[in-house]
Amino acid sequence: MSELKNAVNWQNAQKLGDILPDVWKELQVKVDRMIEQIGDKSPHVAKEDGIYDDMRVDWWTSGFWPGILWIMHEMTGKEHYKEAAWEWDGKFEQKSIQDHNFHHDVGFQYLPTAVIKHKLTGDTDGLRRGLQAANFLAGRFNMAGNFLRAWNQDKHGWAIVDSTMNLSILFWAAETTGDPRFEHIGRAHADTVVEKFIREDGSVNHILSFDPQTGELIESLGGQGFGPQSAWSRGASWALHGLANVYRFTGDAKYLKAAQRVANYFLACLPEDGVAHWDFRADESLDNEPRDTSAATCAASGLIELAAFLPPSEGAVYRNAAERTLLSLTQKYATWDKPEHQAILLEGTGHKPAGQNVNVSLIYGDYYYVEALAKLLGWKQRIF
Ligand code: GLY
């Protein structure tokens, strides 16, 4: 069936489950075309022309495109996805060595590439690169303040909520090597997220600055949100999904409760169609504020995770919310009727305060859309 015909039919669906198998079929057609269109590029952002850029390969987003391919490979068994995904972890490892540019987001890069590659194929280079990334991340831990420091340069005391999503590589390394140091560090940073990043009402800070000598919390910085006290939706989605992952690894209920607290605030702020605005406190009325489909997909995937850990009566609210969001994204924000468009979703927001990448397609929005749909279709592997 043509993409356009399907997309039109999908407009009438009331429930994602009614169209999910067809959506998944079309997604394969879409990703097959993306393989041709994207070629060797490392996609990050596609603007109005629908052409994905070619970002430097050591950028934090370089794992998401191959991550889509690895999920597709595992879901379908088709070799061409594996072939297209295979080289990526080696490419960005080399670039990071060459430019001395390993950073706090190695989890985003190596989990959906090296780690899953090792899990699915036994590849020993994947294992080595994954453990190297985990070692590097563990080395960023500051015992005074219990945080993984963000960025390089001179920001010794800065920590960001995004790092919650990188913690899975530490827990994976603990399981893989039997060395509990990785888990201790993962838990310690997660505790800081729970105690310092998440506010009373369930909204989250993006950047916190600590005194790197004493560990004392100095201040909240605005970062990619509207301001220091605002509620940047992608930051909330990193916390929600990330803490659900920490619960999966540790079984410690405090992380589950914290993920629920963030989820409850997130859900309370959503507009009718379930697709988040870029910051829930950008303005008194959000009507004219841009959406962020990447926050929507990452949160949806995290909500599915969360729902699975709870009794069905409690989890249903999260699962239903995830499905509502994914249905809206499928019906109103996707590029099914634009075969020349190289991304899956529209209307992502990268960094609005900096005027960067507003109302664009973002490769991590595409990744978490695929991840969430795969989970709903029974995919059992967990990358993050
Ligand atoms: N700092 C990563 C992000 O844009 O969410």
UniProtKB/TrEMBL annotation:
<dbReference type="InterPro" id="IPR012341">
    <property type="entry name" value="6hp_glycosidase-like_sf"/>
</dbReference>
<dbReference type="InterPro" id="IPR010905">
    <property type="entry name" value="Glyco_hydro_88"/>
</dbReference>
<keyword id="KW-0378">Hydrolase</keyword>
<keyword id="KW-0326">Glycosidase</keyword>
<dbReference type="InterPro" id="IPR008928">
    <property type="entry name" value="6-hairpin_glycosidase_sf"/>
</dbReference>
<dbReference type="InterPro" id="IPR052369">
    <property type="entry name" value="UG_Glycosaminoglycan_Hydrolase"/>
</dbReference>
<dbReference type="Pfam" id="PF07470">
    <property type="entry name" value="Glyco_hydro_88"/>
</dbReference>
<dbReference type="GO" id="GO:0102212">
    <property type="term" value="F:unsaturated chondroitin disaccharide hydrolase activity"/>
</dbReference>
<protein>
    <submittedName>
        <fullName>Unsaturated chondroitin disaccharide hydrolase</fullName>
        <ecNumber>3.2.1.180</ecNumber>
    </submittedName>
</protein>
<comment type="similarity">
    <text>Belongs to the glycosyl hydrolase 88 family.</text>
</comment>
